[in-house]
Amino acid sequence: CVGCKNESPNLKLLTCLHTLCLNCLSNNKPIGQCPMCRTAIPEASGIPDRDNLLFSSLQARLNIYKKIRSKGGLGCCRCQKEAAAVWCSECEEFLCLSCFEAHQWFFKKRSHEARKLDDLRAESEHQFLESTRRSCSLFCSSPGHNNQGHVTSIYCRRCEKPLCCSCALLDSQHSRFYCDIRSEIQQRQEDLAALSQDLKKTRSSFEAAHEALQAKAARLEQGSSEMQQQIPQ
């Protein structure tokens, strides 16, 4: 949180792109303004609806790294009997060797990246975050799932929030607005690509107009200089 500088499970993203926790926003005065830059907060309560999913995902990955580096042994998330030996960044699960073999056979066409825990323990926090940055999934931002590693797989187009399967089942009223989060990501990427192309065309038009204005200004400056030379001293 940029306000209290503390780690928080409930981080909100403001329209000014500042990230604040619920505690800072609840005690914020005057209500309806960002305490950092005084930008207006549209919501009447003074608390934005949008969660900072990037920070939440970052916190969840750091918690996983702390578990890996902890002295206590990690158990397999699948069989819950054997000690974990590898971690799959796509499934966000610790696996024993037997479950890892079954995992590799089941996901052989999806190229899930699984790494040995001993190799991960040898990495720094920065190296771990960099290695999982591309393959990691977003974690559920529901207050009841803080730091539990619930991976989101569903997107609610009405709430504009990603959900895990448990949250989607509990909120059946919005079921008609649900879609697969991967298809939503793909659609957003296509929309951004189209918007990027439009912006490039607009930029080219502005640059051409700017060059034309500069050329016209140069001609006017030259004409003014010639006129001054023709005026008798």
Automatic annotation (TrEMBL):
GO terms for cellular component: nucleoplasm. SMART domains: RING. It holds the Pfam family ANCHR-like_BBOX. One of its GO terms (molecular function) is zinc ion binding. It comes from the Eukaryota. The keyword Hydrolase does not apply. Residues 1-38 form the RING-type domain. InterPro entries: TRIM45/56/19-like, Znf_B-box, Znf_RING, Znf_RING/FYVE/PHD, Znf_RING_CS. SUPFAM superfamilies: RING/U-box. GO terms for biological process: innate immune response; intrinsic apoptotic signaling pathway in response to DNA damage; suppression of viral release by host. Residues 71-117 form the B box-type domain. Keywords: Coiled coil, Metal-binding, Zinc, Zinc-finger. Residues 185-230 form a coiled coil. This is Protein PML. It comes from Tinamus guttatus (White-throated tinamou).
